[in-house]
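Table S2 (continued). Query chain:
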Amino acid sequence: MSKKEIDPKYSPEGLPPVKNYFLYTYRCLIKMFAFAFFGIGSVFVAIVIFIMRIFIHPKKTFKKAARSFTSLTFRGFINMLRVLGCLSLKVDDRKKYKSLKSKIIIANHPSILDVVFIISLVPNTDCIVRGGLAKTILAGVIRQIYMVNTLGYEEMVQLSKEALDSGSNLIVFPEGTRTPRHGTNPYKRGAARIALETGYDVQPIYIGGTDKYGLGKHDRWFSYNPTEKYVYDMHILDEIKIDAYKDMDAAIAARHLTDDMHEKIASAAMSIDGRTV
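Corresponding output:
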């Protein structure tokens, strides 16, 4: 493989040159291995969850058990990558994540692994996933324990309320797609509307750390942070109480709540990483 093929200075991202070509190549290969391992492991998880569905009743108990099992496997996956030297994880207070209940969790979205990290830290968590995943081999599992974003709005709100009423948390990325390396995407109002419709408080989480180049939406497959390993620095921010918006017109409340979500994440990015999002 030529230097030109792996040196990010030949790409338009404006990245610094690779510091150590051996480490860079190793980490790229580990990243590719991780995606393959995740795909194969997902089939194993799907089989276990199907078996759980047969033996665990009622459905509410099954869903909680299945989500806890998924959280455990995600923790194992992250620990494997830590041992292999691909990434490291910093968490401000693990007990806070485990104690979250009936919260709408919102976060910035710098990489494809963000939902994996959040679910690994918050065992009882529901999630709105891409509709495309419901057409894969994992379709049965996804429909059993998570929500698909192709559902109608009313059905989505109803399912969200049922999940939150049961004590589960709900993950929503307000940008709707991965955060660019510089700046941010406009925040959509879906998370705010769900919060207002269901009446549950919003729990912002900031995902900081090193540059996640290689895990972004349009990053090259064989690529990685050119100077250091991935560091995920997770921070629970102050809750946004939904009662502050209950007397506003619905459209105005959704706009204000969305702006407040963005402000929380942006302030954390600036104070923690000196970054503008």
